[in-house]
Amino acid sequence: MALAALSFGVSILLGVALLWAWRSRGDALRALGAKQLECEQLQQELDKCQHRFEEFKGTLLHDLRGPLQSVTGYSDLLASDATGPLNPKQKRFLENIRSSTPKILDIIDREQADCGKQPW
After folding, report:
1. What is the rounded distance in angstroms from the CA atom of residue 29 to the CA atom of residue 74?
2. How far apart are CA 63 and CA 76, in angstroms?
């Protein structure tokens, strides 16, 4: 009789433990679902921000290209002595400009290609 009562008590305890575990599992699954939904919403927000950044970057690169092309054109004009001779210091400054602008334009071209836009 004592053994049967003990067995019944253990069965009750196991049943309660299983019920608690099942309930805890349900709570965990609900919490996991809520976190998954939150992650999906954050991913959508991140995608929107990434898209806006790419648009901004494309616009910025496009807007930088025009002035740099003007600098290149005017520096070529100055180098041709069409506006008169330059002194050695002016020639050195002009060469710095003429060597730097193509590098910057190349960077702009590569970045625009990464954005999927034509560089012109």
Report:
1. 67
2. 21
In contact, 104 and 68? CB cutoff 8 Å: yes
- Domain boundaries in the chain? 31-114
What's 81's DSSP letter? Answer: T
Read off the pTM: 0.55
Phi/psi of residue 84, nearest 5 degrees? 115, 165
Least Cα distance to 71 among 102, 92, 106, 107 occurs for 102
Using CA atoms, how far apart are residues 8 and 5, in angstroms rounded to an integer?
A: 5
32-49 pLDDT, tens digit per residue, is 888 899 999 999 999 999
Whole-angstrom distance, CA of residue 77 vs CA of residue 43: 51
Look at residue 19 and tell me whether its pLDDT is greater than 80: no
Residue 117 DSSP SS3: coil
Q: With beta carbons less than 8 A apart as the criterion, state whether 117 and 91 touch.
A: no
